[in-house]
Amino acid sequence: MGLITGLCTFLYHFPQIYKWLLKPYYITSLFMTVAFLVVRKAPGLCEHLASQREDGNSCDFDWRELEILMFLSAIVMMKNRRAITLEQHIGNLFLFSKVANTILFFRLDIRLGILYLALCVAFVMTCKPPLYMGPEYIKYFSDKTIDEELQRDSRVTWIVEFYANWSSDCQSFAPVFADLSLKYNCAGLRFGKVDIGRYGEVSERYRVSTSPLAKQLPSLLLFQGGREIMRRPMVDNKGRAVSWTFNEENIIREFNLNELFQKAKKLNKGRALKGEEHNGTQPGEGSDELHADAKTPEQPTESKKDQ
Fold first, then answer.
1. Which of 106, 121, 247, 290 is 20 to 30 A removed from 255 (C-alpha atoms)?
2. HSE, side-chain direction, 13 A CA sphere, residue 122
3. Is 70 exceeded by the pLDDT of residue 49?
């Protein structure tokens, strides 16, 4: 049953996986993930490798290598229990496969281990995971604009993501946050992002740590009238984030997005009626224009390409 479920999931996500394979980051990661398997099984090469098998077959895994691979599988399954998106699942597989391959190559031949480790270092330094570039209604803040925007209109509620481009968790969460902005963004409920890896002053001002040990990235903060109302994940006395799963259901429930959205729509209607009374327009004329404006996102302070 589990095999059938996995196969169905793979077929469902196959178009997305196919697009990934066209990107250099995923192509290189895939080759590095299967590197040891290729070396161990390649005819003409595997015959010259060392092996601890009793039958002396150097083209097959020995018991220690199987043990390491089974341990890798267990680690990936444990990590993927908290994974939300398919990108996180694939990212965990790539990461721990590289770690296992490094151990296996060093155990096989120290020269192969050094070569593979050098390739991993070069890969990390030169090949970055692609950023999410899909549709979204999100305003990007800088250190000079965030305070002004949050305090501009006390009737507007802001949900702001504090992130860093180097954080894999932030990169995995990007499509989830973008999807929420498409569903709930309106004139009275806005979505924003600020790169605290780039703007350290913002990190200190809003008490969101960028340390990997604190595990506070990404952080979602709810602002009303320029004041922070709540944040997720919460932070304990030691400055470490309390474990919290960043999926769409949790965010909608914890931040009461449905209720906030209904209140924001009432605010939109109130503004529309005031605009009609002020301009002397017929009822219904201004409301359509207002809703059209509400659905049109403002130009971001800085583009994704700049970041």
1. 290
2. 8
3. yes
